[in-house]
# Entry
Amino acid sequence: MLAEKQQANTLLSPEDCAEIDRWIGKYPPEQKLSATMPALRIVQDNHGGWLTTELMDAIADYLDVPAMAVYEVATFYSMYELKPVGKHKVCVCTNISCMLRGSDDVVTHFKNKLGISLGETTSDNKFTLKEVECLGACGGAPMMQVGKDYHENLTPEKIDEILAALD
Amino acid sequence: MANEVCFQHIHLENAWTLKVYESTGGYSVWRKILEEKTPPAEIIEQIKASGLRGRGGAGFPTGVKWGFMLNAPSELQKYIVCNSDEGEPGTFKDRDILRYNPHAVVEGMAIGAYAIGATAGYNYIRGEFWEPIQRFEEAIREAYDADLLGKNILGTGVNFDLYTHYGAGAYICGEESALLESIEGKKGQPRFKPPFPAQVGLYGKPTIINNTETLASIPTILSKGADWFVNLGVPNSGGAKLFSVSGHINKPGNYEIPMGTSFKELLEIAGGIREGHQLKAVIPGGSSTPVLKGDTMMEINMDYDSIAKAGSMLGAGSVIVMDDSTCMVKALARISHFYFEESCGQCTPCREGTGWLARILHRIFHGQGRKDDLDLLENVANGIMGQTICALGDAAAMPVLSFIKEFRDEFEYFIEHGKSKVTGEAAL
# Structure
């Protein structure tokens, strides 16, 4: 058991641990479970954009919480990815305000341009196209999020420019 | 008059910095409270007198909520939590407050914490809001450096530590008890109430949760006075409020205007309807609030009572405008899909019911509707209403009931003809 635990912990880099420690410090000392969400985000960001079971187990070990508690959180929230994603995650909002301003056309443009539908990844693993619920930027509809950045008032031309600027 | 509270200085360059915030009087209220050791009960009385009601959608009087904490045992740790988990479709005001006026939220939280006896606070910001998160965390850093947060603030012996917690994609976490569960590192599933958070909140301790706009309004209310604020608005709807206007409108955006302003005027401020089109329908308070016909909206004012009288709710002030090109079946199908996606799965009526609503609307929108589908929709919606732990169930049911009530002919047409009365098309 102990050997397994040590092995799991080698999955987390010193940078991961330092960042997680900073978050643990935000919560009362006896409430390390609170750091589960930040830990999942940090590890996902630092390990290729998605979470393997081994990474989740390593987080559970590091925080000293049951693995099930980490799985519960990882499967509940939509920003955690449990399957491989492309280098650039493109999240298109199709909710009501974006729909009223042409999010259907945005999705169609992506389909034509990248040859993938919502929920799919390009064969070169460069882009994953994801349908998301309202991202709270309805004043700039239609909008999408690529990585951490919001892009608003989308047009086909603007989407082409944004994609061209990504390596 | 516009932009007098949360947006009062956002036109200035680098409005989000401490320097600019202080140059417009920022932190003067917090400094004065610290210096004069204002009794907390006095602050709470002023907030009560201001008529400020929760800006996140529920509209509960903020001063009354804070007052609940005066009875909490003094030896217990207490928390103040800011709800920046903005996710109700049509709502995008808190994002701009965090981006352009984050110090007002910091100051509002500090004052709130002092008033309720909390020494620690969290701002729960949705995880997608990366830019707002950066702005808010920078504001926290600046405030610590200026000795406006932390231990023994400005040598007064007052302590207040402020932290961020990021969401990770879950609309339900905007519900206050789900939000607390989320900070505790769990799935965001709402708690039974009572006990209310003021009794048993974060980590089981007395906690007050306020919306971002609510907290950002506090410094201005206290500096200009409760009377000034209450008189901006109309009876029972004190102050000014941010209205997020989206959809078929020429100038979508956030507009901070006095409560009680007519919808007609707000429509004008937001640039009006696209040329060649007519106003058809408006969802006045975010996707969960009942839709109203455009003609009805043109007669009413943007305040709690006026909108309630017309059969809907002011909610978070999220005004979704639809012109005559809108297929109401498609609009409702999208909204219902959202609530199905976001139901946390805890209560059976909501978990199962939102799925039924979404699937029935999906088949109508795909030209596969059945004769008794409207009765079935109403039956399922009524089976959810009032039967769940939190308000998400009602939020899913209200659009369905109101869309069918106001635009029944469009739904009947779609079922009968297998295509939209408005566009002549069905989904593929």
Residues 72 and 206 of chain B are 7 Å apart (CA to CA). The beta strands of chain B are 79-84, 120-125, 161-166, 207-211, 240-247, 253-258, 279-283, 292-293, 318-323. The two ends of chain B are 48 Å apart (CA to CA). The first helix of chain B runs from residue 18 to 23.
